[in-house]
Specification:
- It holds the Pfam family Pro_CA.
- It is an enzyme of class 4 (lyase).
- It catalyses: hydrogencarbonate + H(+) = CO2 + H2O.
- Reversible hydration of carbon dioxide.
- Helix content is about 50%, strand content about 15%.
- The chain folds into two domains: about 30 residues, no CATH class; about 170 residues, 3-Layer(aba) Sandwich (Beta-carbonic Anhydrase, Chain A), CATH 3.40.1050.10.
- The termini are far apart.
- It has a five-stranded mixed sheet.
- With about 200 residues, the chain is of the alpha/beta class.
- Strand 1, helix 3 and strand 2 form a beta-alpha-beta unit.
- The protein contains eleven helices and five strands, in the order H-H-E-H-E-H-E-H-H-H-H-H-H-E-E-H.
- It binds zinc ion.
- Zinc ion binds next to helix 5.
Amino acid sequence: MAQVLEALLERNRDWSAKIRAEAPDYFDGLALQQTPEFLWIGCSDSRVPANVISGLAPGEVFVHRNVANVVHSSDMNLLSVLEFAVDTLKVRQIIICGHYGCGGVRAATEEDMPHGLADHWLEPIRRLAKRHAHELSKIGDIEMRRDRLAELNVLESVARVAETPILRRAWGRGDYPLLHGLIYGIRDGILRNLDCTISGTDAR
Ligand SMILES: [Zn+2]
């Protein structure tokens, strides 16, 4: 047990030393302030790490992740992150990122299998599946149907973030932040644009 943690700490020391060897002032700059361009709202899945898959360094992306990147309009955790990112950090781009093969989306479609608290958390996805039942029923393959539901979940989350007073206030001041919906393929490592970007102009 202790060896696993010790190995992690050793990797961290190696990483820190490597960064400092390449750029001696790197951590001094970051310690003063963070000015990320992006807020990322994504899934907690360990295969979808925001910084790694988007090629962004520490300091470049502010991150909120939860199971299946669900946006509950009363989630104080998400709303606090959103408000801080928009009003204080003044991020210019907000990315809602879902992914194919999402376990949370799968759980939301397994009606007869209990998942404990997750069943409460995933309720918006079940409702979404019912709302789009006609479209989804035309997709024969169950994995492809779930992947389409994962896309719909991103579109829904984008719409929900756009409706928050935080975004409406920001858009009252101008065009930014831009709000984007992406989906990530865990089989090919590619981020796809769902072409649902909203700016202040679009929202007015
Ligand atoms: Zn997921």
